[in-house]
Amino acid sequence: MTPDSSQVFRGPHCTRVKISALGTYVPPKILTNADLEKMVETNDQWITERTGIKERHILDKGQGTSDMAAEAARRCLAARGIPATDVEAIIVGTVTPDMMFPSTACLVQDKIGAKGAWGFDVSAGCSGFVFALQAGAKLVESGAHKKVMVIGADANSTIVNYKDRTTCILFGDGAGAVLIEPAEEGEVGLIDFVHEIDGSGGPALNLAGGGSLHPASAETVASGMHFIHQDGQTVYKFAVRKMADATTRVLERNGVEGKDLGCFIPHQANKRIITATADRLGMDPSRVIINIEKYGNTSAGTIPLAMGTAVEEGKLKKGDLVLLAAAGAGFTVGAALLRWEI
Prior knowledge:
The protein has 342 residues and is α/β, with parallel strands linked by helices. The chain folds into two domains: 17-182, 3-Layer(aba) Sandwich (Peroxisomal Thiolase, Chain A, domain 1); 190-339, Peroxisomal Thiolase, Chain A, domain 1, CATH 3.40.47. The chain is 30% helix and 22% strand. Strands 1-7-6-4-5 form a five-stranded mixed β-sheet, with helices on both faces. It has a four-stranded mixed β-sheet with strand order 8-13-12-11, with helices on both faces. It has a two-stranded antiparallel sheet with strand order 2-3. The two termini are 24 Å apart.
């Protein structure tokens, strides 16, 4: 089976779909490793060697995830050359919504002026963008819509404890948006995906406070339950194993090998996780997109931001076969195969 003829998870009468535009945004404020050395017991060499991160962007106080998501959406629309009123649905992958409700999608819809659109948020941790991408693709494949905006955005600085050196060095803020539309004749677009959740991993990566189980109170604040909790080793082992498994599965069932890919765009959580997955796929390192040194882990924002980096560096071109992969809280894991049609 060739990737151009794959009908996995696609009915005989479904429309092929593609990413038709991309827009990204990171806030201007930068937090460097040198800055962190003044805040917590760590140093640049230690951070760089273990994570590959040199700096990360931080959202200003008074702004929320929806502000970054809306700006990424505006840039995506500008790249496509269409007004926001053409957008029929908005799906936002995020675990840092501005508030419990309304959804981030509602706030973005209002901020960009997408009158008449509907939408919702997807909570899948760092896999939020790839999960939202497939949800948006299915809305267009089914014929229900012709233009769906998919956004990955997180303001991780708002949930990081800057006294915890094991987590505060990892995370940054950022957003990316893509437009999903029907593919033109002769275009391939999105081909296949493999997604999985494993709720048994919840205790290893979570934010326990503020939900219905542990409503916000003086006690939850005092005990740090509104910050990211992470068992680093458990998360690392899951990410290495499951990202490799998911990517291998989606490639094998579409008759594709690592050498066939134009580029591999993985979630940017840790450089060692990325290289371990790429090695298993037999990928040429020059075709693996890594920008973690500039942005850190922006959760759902990492893959669209890495798409932007790939385009800027000339490593992602029209017609390229592209593999996306992510793993995150939940646990969640996702991989998607597509042909770049921009």
